[in-house]
Amino acid sequence: MGHLSYEEGKKVVFKGLIILGIVTLVEVFVALLGKGYIIDGFHLPVWLMYMLMISMSLYKAYFIVYEFMHMKYEVPGLVKSVLLPTLLLTWMLIAFFSEASTWRKWRAQVNDKPIAAFSAPAAETHHDTEHKDGSPSEVEGHAAPVDSMAALPDTTHAPVKDEPKPEKHH
Amino acid sequence: MSSDHSAHSHDTHASAPSWEGGSEPFKASYGKLMMWYFLLSDAFTFSAFLVAYGTLRFSMPTWPVPDFVFSTLPFGIHHQPLIFVTIMTFVLIMSSVTMVRAVQEGHRENKKGVVYWMFLTIIGGLMFLGCQAWEWTTLIKGESMSITKNPFGTHTENGVYLEGDGHDIKEGDRFEAGQSYLIHYHDGHYQPLKMKTDAGEIKVQQMGPKAFGALFFFITGFHGFHVFSGVVFLLIIMLNVASGIYSKRKNGYEMVEKIGLYWHFVDLVWVFVFLVFYLL
After folding, report:
1. Do A91 and A167 reside in the same domain of the chain?
2. Pairs of CB atoms within 8 A across A/B
3. Which one of B84, B159, B166, B211 has the lowest number of neighbouring Cβ atoms within 10 Å?
4. From the CA of A134, how many Å to the nearest CA of chain B?
5. Claim to verify: residue B139 and residue B79 sit in the same structural domain
């Protein structure tokens, strides 16, 4: 329940509108500036852009929860029981992103191999099946290494074989 | 129990011991507390979706550039990155603000005020849904993205196009690694363009990572479904307010406060959907 007078409450609403609006505009501005849409040829470093945008979003989230949802005026027990469990997400972020970076490395490894050697014979069949439903072949792009992931355990340590396994996926 | 005394000292109106339901350690009603825990669980669901998006994106060598994908506005305006989605964000912020006003009027037991501000909130929700419907239509009908096909590819090398697509790309146009493109769909097929890389290779455009479409439609769709059900609940509660049943309860329109929590949560989720899908 609000511990503010009616007039004070109305002020908070107005303040909230201004703050959320301005922070959103700044976020969009940083995104466009950082990616070179505003000043030709000017880019921000990606880490800086990400840090700015993530911290501004977290600030917006804090403001919505604490002011608009009145978390500021709840008793500490309630606040903790709702907010502390979200810390579990830290584990989730770390676990999934470290996994993702491993996948990325694998894909890069497969890309470095002369992939044509083991995907070329499959390329013809690949081509045919893909064209039936109208999409282009995915032989040369990054999609090919993804499909070849099945063959990865055999090829990471051994040299690429002359006689490749036929791909089962297509 | 030994905690009875301390619980009593904080609680002036309750007479029963804490564990028999007499006092409210969190000073919040059952309904409001459960709304908070529901929102917490919902936050985990959305986090899982967004982390899945991040994981797949981070594991791919290329990903469609959001300000290329989301750059269309109504009335035939193109190449205005992020503008439409910024408007959507403002619509949602506005409706969050009107919701706060409705809750405040509820605390004053001002029935007319609650109905007025809730009505504006509903309008905001419907406007947001309309914007989302338009955005989806553009992607599905105009750009032929589906949950299994993603025509938004990204160049991995520099080079020149050997043919044009009749839209934005002309023969001889240069492209650079990291730029995204849209493979147009007509005559029943996607029509990838031929191009020549600076290394001298002849290639055709490749479709983008498959997961992109599914992630986009499921995550924004799940959020849109929350907005939709929020609008339905707001409508029901607004009608109840107008009928006067909450003024009889004399509890400061607590039902309005509860739906208000839900509505702010929808705005809160959008903050992160906006960040993850459109800004990063």
Report:
1. yes
2. 167
3. B166
4. 4
5. yes
Give the model's pLDDT for residue A126.
Answer: 43
- With respect to residue B87, please indicate whether it lies within any of the assigned structural domains: yes
User: What digits encode the pLDDT tens for the residues B94-123?
Assistant: 999 999 999 999 998 899 999 999 999 999
Q: Which amino acid is at B217?
A: F
Neighbours of A85 (CB within 10 A): 14
Token code pair at residue B81: 């990155």
Distance of alpha carbon B114 from alpha carbon B103, whole angstroms: 7
Helix (H, G, I), strand (E, B) or coil at B248: helix
Higher pLDDT, B31 or B11: B31
pLDDT at A105 over 80: yes
The pLDDT score that the predictor gives to residue A55 is 95
H helices of chain B, where?
A: 3-10, 30-59, 66-69, 83-107, 111-137, 211-243, 245-249, 254-273
Q: Do A136 and B206 touch (CB under 8 A)?
A: yes
Summarised one tens digit per residue, pLDDT across range B52-78 is: 999 999 998 888 888 888 888 887 777
Tell me if A13 and B271 make a contact (CB, 8 A cut-off): no
| Phi, psi (deg, nearest 5) at residue B60 | -95, 145
Confirm if B171 and B161 have CB atoms less than 8 A apart.
Answer: yes
How many beta carbons lie within 10 A of that of residue B150, not counting itself? 25
Dump pLDDT digits (tens) for B201-220. Answer: 888 888 888 899 999 999 99
B65 contacts in A (CB within 8 Å)? 35
- Residue B125 is encoded by which pair of tokens? 């929700």
Write out chain A residues lying below 8 Å of B258, CB-based. none
What residues in B contact A111, CB-CB < 8 Å?
61
The answer to whether position A1 is within a domain reads no
- The whole domain housing B177 covers 152-204
Round to whole Å and give the CA distance between A131 and B229. Answer: 41
Structure tokens at B37: 């825990």
Mutate to test the interface with A, among B275, B276, B277, B278 (most CBs of A within 10 A): B275
Asked if the structure places residue B119 within a domain, the reply is yes
Q: What is the CA radius of gyration of chain B?
A: 25
Q: Which amino acid is present at B139?
A: L
* Chain B residues within 8 A of A61 when measuring between CB atoms: 268, 271-272
